Amino acid sequence: MPTPPKGPRLGGGPAHERLMLANLAAALFEHKRITTTVTKAKRLRPYAERLITFAKRGDLAARRRVLATISDKGIVHELFTGIAPAVENREGGYTRITKIGNRKGDNAPMAVIELVLEPLSPKQAVVKEAEKAAETAAPAPVAEEAAETESPESAESAESAESAESAPSAESAEEAPEAEEKK
């Protein structure tokens, strides 16, 4: 999992921190949202998102890797069959941290960390697809696609513009002999 930062741990040694993060992740996957301190929530986010990424892969090796961290098979099953399909279209950002104020007893800053299970909005998906298409497509096909997607009203205006272009060409044909005479 993510390498722990140097310096003080979340209440003990590195082994205690790993167990604490694994338990917090298991609770998050079980309840879909948990309330904890801001520091623990910030440390939990990359840990939980990496486990979700493994679950999105869905193969046996990924399942065993998650089971090495979270020992409850029921929670791992929920992660692979419930949470991973719900976030399969997302490319990250599976969790949301919301600060909720300070705890009454010791004034510790508290936060709610929750899974973002809402489907990706169509607007964001369309924008990402358009960006990918713009990167891979040549400029000429983009103009053709724009011409194909024109409304009938704009097609009529395009036809009238073409007829207007043909009319001046007839006038320019009449002006051509006059230009030759001036020479």
From TrEMBL:
Q: Which Pfam families match?
A: Ribosomal_L17 (PF01196)
Q: Is Ribonucleoprotein tagged as a keyword?
A: yes
Where is the region Disordered? 128-183
Alphabetical keyword list: Ribonucleoprotein, Ribosomal protein
Which InterPro entries does the entry link to? Ribosomal_bL17, Ribosomal_bL17_CS, Ribosomal_bL17_sf
**Bias type Acidic residues, positions:** 172-183
Q: Which domain of life is it from?
A: Bacteria
Compositional bias (Low complexity) at which positions? Answer: 135-144, 154-171
Give a yes or no for keyword Ribosomal protein in this entry: yes
Quaternary structure and interacting proteins, as annotated: Part of the 50S ribosomal subunit. Contacts protein L32.
- Which family is this sequence assigned to? Belongs to the bacterial ribosomal protein bL17 family.
Instruction: Tell me what this protein is called.
Output: Large ribosomal subunit protein bL17
Q: Which organism is it from?
A: Arthrobacter mangrovi
